[in-house]
């Protein structure tokens, strides 16, 4: 597997023309992944579809693994632009977060090949991909935290629990992809996980100290 090293750090688009090329690659890669999954992505074919040279493709995306992470990042960036422009609906943190994660999961169901490829890229990326993985996690966290806050603020305890709920939702998606959960099972687990957000702050502190005294809960950004 190729890796990103100091010598082949990906270029960053700096002009509108470069950004347009970058966006065409992301769009073409998304189409290929949607139709055939990760195995269908061939870099030479992708370059032709996107209308860029192979050298240009590798300048921005030094490996297929990096490309998949870039596709995932672009999707979370689009989600952030969408949710940040509106006030999330829902009367409570639990309501808002449950609605968001279930909406996110239903979108994932609509294209299982794409979801599987991007989930594998995120869980399979090693230290060589730490920078873009951090960007993916940071952007996703921005989306979730904005939805949870609903125009207000979250307590420190709520943010800690939100990390736990995020991981519950991610695990439910992975089990659905593996075939061990039905879609209904996954949504039920997400809903149950979101009930944790109704716990009082004092109870959250007590329970986290009891079950995971040595764990530091650090939001991604």
Automatic annotation (TrEMBL):
InterPro entries: Homeodomain-like_sf (IPR009057), HTH-type_TetR-like_transc_reg (IPR050109), HTH_TetR (IPR001647), KstR_C (IPR041642). Residues 19-79 form the HTH tetR-type domain. Residues 42-61 bind DNA. Keywords: DNA-binding. Gene3D superfamilies: Tetracycline Repressor, domain 2. GO terms for molecular function: DNA-binding transcription factor activity; transcription cis-regulatory region binding. It comes from the Bacteria. This is TetR/AcrR family transcriptional regulator.
């Amino acid at each position: 597997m190729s890796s990103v090293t100091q010598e082949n750090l990906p270029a960053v688009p700096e002009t509108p023309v470069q950004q347009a090329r970058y966006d065409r690659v992301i769009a073409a890669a998304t189409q290929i992944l949607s139709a055939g999954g990760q195995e269908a992505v061939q870099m030479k074919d992708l370059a032709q579809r996107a209308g860029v040279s192979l050298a240009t493709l590798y300048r921005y995306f030094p490996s297929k693994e990096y490309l998949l992470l870039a596709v995932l990042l672009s999707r979370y960036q689009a989600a952030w632009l969408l949710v940040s422009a509106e006030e999330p609906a829902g009367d409570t943190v639990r309501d808002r977060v449950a609605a968001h994660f279930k909406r996110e999961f239903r979108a994932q169901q609509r294209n299982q090949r794409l979801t599987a490829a991007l989930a594998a890229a995120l869980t399979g990326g090693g230290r060589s991909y730490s920078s873009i993985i951090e960007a993916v996690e940071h952007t996703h966290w921005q989306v979730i935290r904005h939805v949870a806050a609903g125009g207000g603020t979250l307590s420190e305890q709520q943010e800690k629990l939100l990390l736990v709920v995020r991981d519950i939702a991610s695990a439910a998606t992975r089990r659905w992809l593996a075939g061990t959960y039905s879609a209904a099972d996954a949504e039920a687990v997400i809903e149950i996980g979101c009930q944790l957000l109704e716990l009082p702050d004092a109870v959250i502190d007590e329970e986290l100290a009891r079950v995971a005294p040595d764990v530091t809960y650090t939001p991604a950004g």
